[in-house]
Design goal:
- Helices cover 10% and strands 26% of the residues.
- It has 144 residues and is mostly beta strands.
- The chain has a domain of 84 residues: OB fold (Dihydrolipoamide Acetyltransferase, E2P).
- It has a five-stranded mixed β-barrel.
- The termini are far apart.
- InterPro entries: NA-bd_OB-fold (IPR012340), RNA-binding_domain_S1_IF1 (IPR006196), TIF_eIF-1A (IPR001253), TIF_eIF-1A_CS (IPR018104).
- Keywords: Initiation factor, Protein biosynthesis, RNA-binding, tRNA-binding.
- This is Eukaryotic translation initiation factor 4C.
- Belongs to the eIF-1A family.
């Protein structure tokens, strides 16, 4: 019997493994766009990002990037701002670590921006749980 070489199932995705990020040139922000860093992944193609203008925004990953470009916490992204909703934005582009470093070298990103560091907890988010009475129970186990 012949092998299945059709385009059904996952066969259409197994084709070429091209690396597009090497071909792509560095994209700077334009009017109505802003650089941001991902704070939290929310699911359903949405994330929470802290823009470098100081506003925390709910961002929607556009369809071209969904399931093709994986976005993680603390990634640097380019978002398109909405005219009618200031607290929401759309993800236009994800920068890899090399592109983000070159953006920082050009002075587009602020100096305090952490690139390629997965600091999921902010300052003061340490869970310091203290237990007072461990093992000081006077229960009678014979009654059980």
């Amino acid at each position: 019997m012949p092998k299945n070489k059709g385009k059904g199932g996952k066969n259409r995705r197994r084709g070429k493994n091209e690396n597009e990020c090497e071909k792509r040139e560095l994209v700077f922000k334009e009017n109505g766009q802003e650089y941001a860093q991902v704070i939290k992944m929310l699911g359903n193609g949405r994330l929470e990002a802290m823009c470098f203008d100081g506003v925390k925004r709910l961002c929607h990953i556009r369809g071209k990037l969904r399931k093709k470009v994986w976005i993680n916490i603390s990634d640097i992204i380019l978002v398109g701002l909405r005219d009618y909703q200031d607290n929401k934005a759309d993800v236009i582009l994800k920068y890899n670590a090399d592109k983000a470093r070159s953006l920082k070298a050009y002075g587009e990103l602020p100096e305090h921006a952490k690139i390629n560091e997965t600091d999921t907890f902010g300052p003061g988010d340490d869970d310091e749980i203290q237990f007072d009475d461990i093992g000081d129970y006077d229960e009678d186990t014979d009654d059980i």
